[in-house]
Each structure stands twice: as structure tokens, then as C-alpha cells.
Design a protein that fits this description.
about 475 residues; mainly beta; 20-stranded antiparallel sheet; 2 helices; 28 strands; about 50% strand
């Protein structure tokens, strides 16, 4: 606070002792190593007499050698990959207990780790819903460091089916007091897999892989107690094992993809995948997959004509063990509301075929072999629509019209069932248990780009070969083919 003490020696003409200025027009000052003070806009002592130009930001930026490190001290060190978290989902954990179902554990999470260069990635995911035996587990490792890229991992996925018809386990239905037992069939799929791919160029590659699969089967009985005809209690009994199967499946694929994507779907190019995967072991068959897609722009690239030919054929002794379903919105639109009951799994005697088809229309959507053909004409509705003064805009919206056709059938049916023959059009006296023909639909749809996070799609379809030809709309996530 006060004026500084007088220096021992007289200051130079450049840096002079300046008393503290407390006037309204005071200036900032610097204190020198000699305990003197100089104005902040004055050069330090000796700077002008040395003949050097004043130091400025321009001079610093113009000097390439200023403050650069000494390269003689550099060291070459081999890169070592270290995994760091790239994504962690919100963990969830819960515990429950009840007299009917026993102790239960709920929860799950997903963790993705990667190295600095993005060459290696490790993903771990696990979820439990009820008991440890119902856990879903996945662990995979991917290496992209070289031209020959590969991925490997293990997984466990339980799948549940409604088993046989409910059975009377006690009591008398006539009195309204009885016990009914439902049997849930659980298949637990455990996989160990690996796949390598070798690109020939930016658009073409070969893939070679294999997997070993173990499928265990068990029955989970659930008994329901009825009193006065109303359910009053339900108990989960211990599961009963039914044995399992182990299979080995090598695979080979050829892939070509030069498609150029737009806001909601590809708009130009071609995509092709041909894959063969034989399976040996407890279940035996050969899987064939052919997926070819074209995107042809017309009218100054404003309209895109998109076509797809798709076939997934499982042929062999046990092909009936795992059926495919073509009623999905990304396969054949307009058929995902067909009625289905367990009584449709075999021939119904004494029932007219027309009535069987009306009540079991979804049966013709299942088969171990499927073939599809799709065509769409796509065009933009909105590319950008600003919301007034708000700093946001509506996402891009595309529209389309489509025509779908597809058929599902089984060439080697389960014991007691019939294999189906395929016709190009509906046969006279059509029998869905022994005959199949392509199902057709047409309609229009809209695709919404949700700010780059997902594609929301809506399709309005007329099913031409459904007993009830009433059209309806379907919401679905995912881009067009």
C-alpha cells in the first residue's frame, strides 16, 4: 500500500521507478527483478538497445523453430493396445422372492471396450430375468488391425415355447376345483463362433467362419389352481431336462456392396451376399442364403427404383427343427395379423380347407425354406423444414410405394406332417398343409430419419392373398431393404 522504497541505483531511462498511481486514470505496472516498477506498455531494460525487434504474436507464429522440442530426445516405443471403456449401458440389478416362484434375480448391463486406434474391440453383455439358468450372456472380441479381420466370441440365449396343450393335474372340472398344468419348453442355445473376412477391394470381400452350438432342452411345468372355475394360485415347478444336441457348422460367404446411402435408405448401387453353411452333429442340414439388391436412380437422381431377390433355404434331414417366418414387416408386409392356433400344425379331418385357411392363415407364413421378391419406388417428401425461429428443423422424410411377394415351405417335414409343394399361383382346392404359393401385397409407406439416431418407418399394406383383405398400417424401426 504506499510508495515503494527508492532503489539503490538509478534506474535506466527505459525502466524507471514509478510510484503507485491511485488516481482515477491509474495504469497497470510490472515489477522487475531489480525490485523496480515499469509501466506495462514500456519495453524492459536493454530490449531496445540490443537491436532486436519487439516480441509480438506475429513474430512467434512466423518462427517455425521457436519453442519446438529437441528431436534428439525422441524415443521410439512399440504401440501397446490398452482397452478403455467406449460404451457402458446403465446397469440394473433387482432381487425378488415369492412363495410361488422362489427367489429371483433381475438385471443386466453391456460394456464395450476399445483401444486408442480402434483396431480392437471387446464387448461383454449379460442379462438375467428370473433365475441364473435363464441368463443371456454374450462376449465377443474383434480385431481390425490388418487386412485379414476377424471376430470371435461365445453366447448363451434361452428361447421359450408353449409346449403341449394344458393337462389336468388334479381335481374335477365339473366341481370348478381343479389344477391345470402348462408346460413351457425352454431351449438354451450356447454358441462359440469365429468369423474372418478378407476384402479384395473397397466393395468386395470373402468371409470364412464357423461355430459350435449346443442346444439343451427342458420342460418348465406351471400349475394353476382353480376354485369355483377361477384361477386363485399359480406355482412354478422344477424344470425337467429332455436332453440336447451339439452341432458344428462351418460357413463361407461372398459379399459385394457398393451402395450409396441417402437419408433413410440406399439410393444408388448394388448389394449382394451369397452364403453356404452346412451343419453336422445332432441336427443336420445345409443353409443357403442369397440376397441381391439393386438401387437405380432415375429422374435426375430424385427417384430411386429399389428391387430385392431374397432366398433362405434350409435343406436336410432335420430342417423342420427351426422354421423361418415371412410375415415380418421387412419381408412381406400386410400379413403379420394372420390368425394362428396350435391345431393348425397338422391336417384337420372333416374341416373344409377354406375354413382351415381362415382360422390358420399364419401357418403358410412358416417354413424351413423362404423366397421373397420386393420392389419399391422411393422419393423425398421433405429434405429440410425449419420450425420458425426455433434453432431446429424437422428431419428428412421419404415416401415410397411397394409391391411384395413371398412364399414359405418345408421340403422335409417333421414326422407326422406333410412336405409342401410350391406353385406360382394359388392351386385349385388349395390345401395349406401340402401346398404353398407366393403371397402378395402392395401399398405405400413413409420413412422418418430421427435426427440420425434411427429410422422410423410406417407402411400401409393391402394383403392380396389373405382371407381378410382389409388393409392396415404398421410401425417399425429400421431402414428399407
Amino acid at each position: 500500500t504506499g510508495a515503494p522504497a527508492a532503489p539503490a541505483a538509478a534506474p535506466s531511462t527505459v525502466a524507471q521507478a514509478i510510484p503507485v498511481d491511485t488516481t482515477p486514470d491509474s495504469r497497470s505496472v510490472y515489477r522487475t527483478p531489480a525490485s523496480t516498477f515499469r509501466a506495462s506498455d514500456a519495453l524492459p531494460a536493454g530490449a531496445a538497445s540490443a537491436g532486436a525487434p519487439p516480441l509480438s504474436v506475429t513474430a512467434l507464429l512466423d518462427s517455425a523453430a521457436l519453442a519446438l522440442p529437441d528431436t534428439a530426445r525422441f524415443k521410439d516405443t512399440r504401440y501397446k493396445a490398452g482397452f478403455q471403456p467406449e460404451y457402458i449401458s446403465q446397469p440394473q440389478v433387482g432381487v425378488g422372492t415369492s412363495a410361488n416362484y422362489g427367489q429371483q434375480l433381475y438385471g443386466g448391463t453391456t460394456i464395450v471396450l476399445g483401444d486408442l486406434l480402434g483396431n480392437q474391440q471387446l464387448a461383454i453383455s449379460a442379462a438375467v430375468n428370473g433365475q441364473i439358468s435363464d441368463a443371456q450372456v454374450f462376449a465377443g472380441y474383434t480385431n481390425l488391425a490388418r487386412r485379414l479381420q476377424y471376430t470371435t466370441g461365445v453366447s448363451q440365449i434361452p428361447v421359450y415355447f408353449l409346449g403341449s396343450q394344458p393337462a389336468l393335474a388334479g381335481g374335477d372340472p365339473n366341481t370348478g376345483n381343479f389344477v391345470v398344468e402348462d408346460r413351457i419348453q425352454r431351449q438354451t442355445w450356447r454358441d462359440g463362433f469365429w468369423r474372418a473376412l478378407y476384402p479384395l477391394n473397397r466393395f468386395t470381400r470373402f468371409e470364412l467362419g464357423g461355430r459350435i452350438t449346443n442346444v439343451s432342452n427342458s420342460i418348465i411345468p406351471i400349475q394353476t389352481l382353480y376354485q369355483g372355475g377361477y384361477p386363485v394360485d399359480q406355482r412354478l415347478l422344477g424344470s425337467r431336462k429332455l436332453g440336447g444336441n451339439t452341432m458344428l457348422a462351418p460357413s463361407f460367404a461372398f459379399v459385394r456392396d457398393n451402395a450409396l446411402f441417402g437419408y433413410t435408405a440406399p439410393i444408388m448401387g448394388q448389394r449382394l451376399r451369397f452364403q453356404v453353411e452346412p451343419q453336422f452333429g445332432g441336427w443336420r442340414w445345409v443353409d443357403y442364403l442369397l440376397d441381391y439388391r439393386r438401387y437405380d436412380p432415375i429422374l435426375f437422381n430424385w427417384i430411386t427404383v429399389s428391387t430385392r431377390a431374397f432366398a433362405s433355404i434350409t435343406a436336410g434331414r432335420d430342417e423342420y427343427q427351426w422354421y423361418k417366418y415371412i410375415g415380418r414387416p421387412d419381408f412381406i408386409r400386410g400379413y403379420n395379423r394372420e390368425p394362428y392356433s396350435q391345431g393348425c400344425s397338422g391336417q384337420l379331418t372333416g374341416v373344409p380347407n377354406s375354413e382351415v385357411q381362415a382360422n390358420c392363415g399364419a401357418a403358410q407364413l412358416f417354413g424351413s425354406r423362404i423366397a421373397l421378391a420386393n420392389a419399391e419406388i422411393r422419393f423425398p417428401l421433405i429434405r429440410r423444414f425449419d420450425l420458425g425461429v426455433l434453432p431446429i428443423a424437422l428431419p428428412p422424410i421419404d415416401a415410397l410405394v411397394f409391391y411384395d411377394a413371398g412364399v414359405a415351405w418345408t421340403g422335409n417335414a417333421a414326422p407326422g406332417n406333410q412336405a409342401q409343394s410350391v406353385s406360382l399361383k394359388r392351386p385349385a382346392n388349395y390345401d395349406l398343409f401340402s401346398q404353398r404359393y407366393p403371397l402378395r401385397s402392395y401399398g405405400y409407406g413413409i420413412r422418418f430419419n430421427l435426427f440420425g439416431f434411427a429410422i422410423l418407418r410406417w407402411d400401409y399394406a393391402w394383403p392380396l392373398d389373405s382371407p381378410n383383405r382389409k388393409p392396415f398400417g404398421t410401425w417399425f424401426f429400421g431402414p428399407s431393404f
